[in-house]
Amino acid sequence: MLLPTPAEAARPSGRTRRGRGLLAAALSAGAAALTAVAAFAVPSATATAAPVHDPVIMIPGMTGNTTSMDTMKSNLQSNGWPADRLFTWTDSSKMTQDLAVAARELGAKVDQVRSQTGASRVVLATWSASTLAARYYIKNLGGGDKVSQYIGFAGPQHGTTNNGCQFYVSCQQFASPNTPFLRALNSGTEVPHSNKVAYMTVRSVNDINAAPYDTAKLEGAHLNYLMSGPTAPTHFTIIRDATALAEMRRFIKEHEGTTPPTTPPTTPPPSSGTCYITSNTGHVQAGRARAVWGQTYANGSNQYMGYHSAYVTTKLRQKADNHYVIDNTCT
């Protein structure tokens, strides 16, 4: 006869063992169920939400089609930017008209994109002549509160020696560093509202259109990126260059969320002061503006209004005696 071992003698009866086994199984199943619920209810500590990028408006240069910016658009999309936050656009003249007028059209596009996407601010990715229209918009037309980042590729920010294009009005405005348009645009600061707008420029030593190539720099920009060497892009390939686009993406990500938030588009309260809406010629004749070498400037504020022409209309608001400012909210 085999006697039970001490360990076997210490075991509880079969019924008790079965009861405890069932209890243990139930507890184990319950713990597994709670673990499963927790797995669905609590996100992983390593999971991160995808960034919400500001919408990007990509703008070609003088005579350029929006398709010129397709490579840039595809590059952003393939690197995580949603398609519904990427826009290519140009003004009604393809940047050949007075760039102050192009800037006003840009303002309307910015407002449309903000309304469509619900974003407070947009990124402006500009090329060549459109770099100037975008800066004019930021400086003079309220863009400082609606733009988070300004990126200028190969812009004639201080004129160009390659200026045989002066049959276009816009080209006349950047044909040299001393045009009235550029003097007014670059006066005070070359990076208006830089406390709210991050500025980046991209230029190349092989650019013979915006020449000399350092014309594309902006004093005070957060980044003036120079591409050098024999393989550096030209004026026309810089907006498709993989290195340039990678730097642009890095800059955008680096400065996202660093600018002060603004409220969604709303109708602003009316400003004080009398409004005057007429042609630039009419403003000069009425003593609200002055004409200098065919260009028009508002008295007092010295804001550039565009060409001295009966066909260019500007909205001016009087802020003080003989002091007028451009105000597109005038009705």
UniProtKB/TrEMBL annotation:
Q: Which UniProt keywords apply?
A: Signal
So which residues are the signal peptide here? Answer: 1-49
**Name under which the protein is recorded:** Lipase
Q: Which organism is it from?
A: Actinomadura namibiensis
Q: What is the lineage of its organism?
A: Bacteria, Bacillati, Actinomycetota, Actinomycetes, Streptosporangiales
